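Team,

Forwarding the record for the chain on the shared tracking sheet. I've put the sequence and predicted structure together so nobody has to dig through attachments.
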Amino acid sequence: MKYAVFGAGGVGGYLGARLADAGHDVHLIARGDHLEALRTDGLCLESVAGDTTVDLPATDDPTDIGPCDYVLFCVKSYDTRDAAGDLEPLLEDGTAVVSFQNGVDNEQWLAEEIGDERVVGGVAYIFSTIGEPGVVEHTGGPARFVYGELDGRRTERIEALDDALTDCEGVDAVLADDVRVELWRKFAFICAQAGMTAATRLLVGEIRDVDASWEMYRRLLEEVCTVARAEGVDLPDGLVDEWLEFARELDPEMSSSLQYDLTHGKPMELDALHGSVVRHAADCGVDVPMNEAVHAILRPWADRNQ
């Protein structure tokens, strides 16, 4: 099958390399110095699950690639709307655009541009980033990718994607029964982990050591779960405690991409995280004071970095 990886960074680059090693036709879409390195030296994956280097076609122009079976859509959430407008050359009847992004709004934003029928939801659990141009570093996490049709159907295309990802070495592939549950499940954790590490500009170990801060971490989780349930998302009981236990076991040096972007002057995904919680909460009449506080604290930084 033919794949385009739209945004060949930490998540997209990892998936692209693993699919290429499994024998699939993979094309990378990137930009800047990273694109130039991909063109000259190939994609180097340095992974705790095994290293690989693949020489794949790379471009910043989707028209160079043409129609694909799957587009793995891995851009930052603040680029979703603009990038969605560039997808047309990659699409044909049956093309699936699979979003592996942070947040719970990207699928809707994509659908508004290319139609509901083309969009597949996805969640990535992996700690990976661009270490230097042309090099993706996978430093930890389960490399677990969860995906599914937004309406829950087991279509031929989603089962074919499941087969392909299941066959990839270094990929824990999961076809979800309800991908919307999975999107909100991860969203709750991201808002707590990213919100607290970015707002304090500290690592998770230091946050765990302060009772008041650890309580705020919990309340951020609880608020997102409350909003999800108010919108009819059937999150499992005990999810807050499950994520707290997971966070207790994290390396104390862990932070978040939101904190990294804040401290390095880069655009931030705040609008797709805590900004989104605030919007969804207002729509369904739920109070989310902890998420409002994080949003208010980080909003000036997000505006400055933008």
